[in-house]
Amino acid sequence: MKTKAFLLTAALGLTGALALGDSIWNYDFGDDGAFTTNNTVSTTFLPVPPSGGGTARVRVGNNAGGGFEVSDGALTITSASGGSHNKFSIYDYTPGKAFTFNFDISFNNSVSGTWIMVIGDGANFSNNSGFAGNQTFTGLQWVMGEESITSSVREGGAWNQSSTTRFAKETQYSIQIFGNNSTSSIQYGENILAANTVDIWVNDSKILTGIGKALLLDDSFIDSFMFYGENSISNSSELTISNLSYANYAIPEPGSLILMGIMGVAAFVVLRRKRA
User: Fold this and answer.
1) Range of the domain at 171
2) Contact 131, 137 (CB under 8 A)
3) Residue 226 contacts by C-beta under 8 Å, 6 or more apart in sequence?
4) Measured between alpha carbons, how far is 196 from 206 in angstroms, rounded to an integer?
5) CATH number, domain at 243?
6) Which of 125, 131, 188, 255 has the greatest CB tally within 10 Å of its CB?
7) Where are the alpha helices (DSSP H) in 37-97?
8) How far apart are CA 213 and CA 154, in angstroms?
9) In angstroms, what is the C-alpha Rg of the chain?
10) Which residues, in sequence order, are CB contacts of 127 under 8 Å at separation 6+?
11) Is residue 94 part of a domain?
12) Does residue 19 fall inside a structural domain?
């Protein structure tokens, strides 16, 4: 009974947030399948996001090899062999000037290739191009090397390598990104996030605090993100994404994005009680 009461209370709290225009989305990559045809785009290979959650799109580059595979609830992207991008994006979800972005990520043991993830707003999220600096609020870059992965964060108009962010091959990481593109500070949990800054958490530890945004205009809306891979010799580099969630506001507690699924569980509990 206490569990039901907790779920219902949490659901009502989230419903209140939704009523004010704040939205959260859990994205399910769907059934097993593959999409590998060169120079091809699809907005139907992956499931349609929940209401207001935008459009999901995949693109295999021009004569680039690689592509996409869904298995066990995860999306694996095999990188393009050249500069043409194998790209997954979700674009034009209900916008906000703050956001929460959560995903699990892992890389295979490749020694070549570059992976990029960016969040922002603009035409490049729905076309075949890579990111544009003026459409990007923040981003991460991973460059595969012989011994390790070199990671960087997008600040201003450049990729800045972060000595506090370490990623190993064949290891899964949970990443949470909190961004604020409004004109004033916001609070999530016990954390204050100044205007035009980003906090990045890895495995529930905050590893970058209040770093500067990229070049997206101040006080503009954010409604899209993308992942893509390029320049991997013989298409050897693979990136796997799972447990993807996103919101158009800063969710209160880092490390607690399980709450993003409470709405569905609570609705199920309420429905069963009504039927009883």
Assistant:
1) 28-260
2) no
3) 87, 88, 89, 90, 91, 116, 117, 118, 124, 125, 131
4) 18
5) 2.60.120.200
6) 125
7) none
8) 7
9) 19
10) none
11) yes
12) no
pTM of the model: 0.85
- 21 falls within a domain: no
Helix or strand run (H / E) with residue 272: helix 262-275
Cα 7 from Cα 2, distance rounded (Å): 9
Residue 133 forms part of a structural domain: yes
In one-letter notation, the amino acid at residue 30 is G
Q: Whose structure tokens read 């209040």?
A: 210
Q: Which residue matches tokens 């062999």?
A: 81
Q: In a 3-state reduction of DSSP, which class is residue 240?
A: strand
Residues 6+ apart with CB under 8 A from 256: none
- For residue 207, the one-letter residue type is I
Total domains, the chain: 1
